[in-house]
Description:
By secondary structure, the chain is α+β, with helices and mostly antiparallel strands. Strand 1, helix 2 and strand 2 form a beta-alpha-beta unit. The protein has 18 helices and 15 strands. The chain folds into 2 domains: 172 residues, Periplasmic binding protein-like II (D-Maltodextrin-Binding Protein, domain 2, 3-Layer(aba) Sandwich); 199 residues, Periplasmic binding protein-like II (D-Maltodextrin-Binding Protein, domain 2, 3-Layer(aba) Sandwich). Strands 7, 10, 11, 12, 14 and 15 form a 6-stranded mixed beta sheet that branches. Strands 2-1-3-13-6 form a 5-stranded mixed beta sheet. The chain has a two-stranded antiparallel sheet with strand order 4-5. The relative contact order is 0.18.
Amino acid sequence: MKKIITLGILFTMAFSSLYASGEQDSKSEEKISITYAFWSADQEPAMEAIRDEFQKENPNIEVTFEITPWGEYWTKLEASAMGGAMPDVFWMHANRFANYVTNDVLMDLSKLNVDFNDYKDEILGLYAYKNGYYAVPKDFDVVGLFYNKDLFDNAGLTYPNESWTWDNLVSSAKILNNPEDGVFGFAAPDTNHQGYFSVIYQNEGSVLNREAGVSHMGDKATIEAVQFWRDFIEKHEVSPTQEQLADTDAQTLFTSGKVAMLFLGSWKLGGLSANEQIKDKFDVAVLPKGKTEATIMNGLGYSGSAATEHPEAVKAFISFLGSERAAVLQGEYGAAIPAFKGQETSWLQTFPQYNVSSFLEMAGYGIALPTSLSKSKWEPVMESYMRKAQAGQISIEKACQAIAEEMNVYLSQE
């Protein structure tokens, strides 16, 4: 017992020493170097512009980028967290947040030099934990309807608009569907965020009640919505099957003109607008309405390492990242829709050729991405059952009920 207590005291003293050292370094003229990790090379120009302005105001702090593709980013971040060598500042995603905040590797940013009222509540809430904030909102995104204008023109159809309902989506998909040319009217992959989650809430269903710790995947309205999604493949036969989508994903099929419509996140706009194959052939619209209007809203955050050697420099940089000026730069470079209230329009002006105002319209009724502290446990369960259901191996009803049952076990343990 004495040895454990001694080690604890030594660790506390060492951590306090590092923290004090960081405070002194940030105020001195000595050059400090901190690392900033993120996964999107497309957003590097915006991040460079933000970093340059920060370094002009803080010439003694040098910020070095660590850019890693999405798939490898989380493997690398987890390994660095376990090894005690995390980047000083890094992007955080709501789906991964619980894994890090519950292991005490994220810096508490509650007393940062920012006004948290400046950010969208839906995004701010994603990064709250035990009365603290462990990420400053960076941006927000919604899921919209992307469509191929050429295919609509060839079919003599009016483009999707805010009056569209589920019936319009189905009827237009049937007209656009052209098996002879290998064109599908719509794509309904077995994905939740850019797929059936929005449909569930449009049908006045729900994935879960986080506060009550209860899953609603087995509710009638939720099952009906997921069945509606499945019907594009099985009943209407206007979507690629899951086997076909496993070979070529929905976005690739859309880019090549083989899918007329699909749900995609607003963050996909930058890449598609730069793609020579599709950039002049598509546009975006609000999601068709079910019983009500709904879309899934998510957003990234800026987090800091709790074990950084330069905590004051990290706080200074994250404060700048969360500033209105950084939000303007992020928007003007077309990186993402800023989470800073009032700066959404800076992003809109970057894409005048598209109906991007539809994204802001949907933000008015966006539903925060369903998540909880045990999401890393229940989401794989959901994905497994949904793959089976979408492939026709089990019914949608049985899949949803099984998901709800297993989710409730994990939710009860939070």
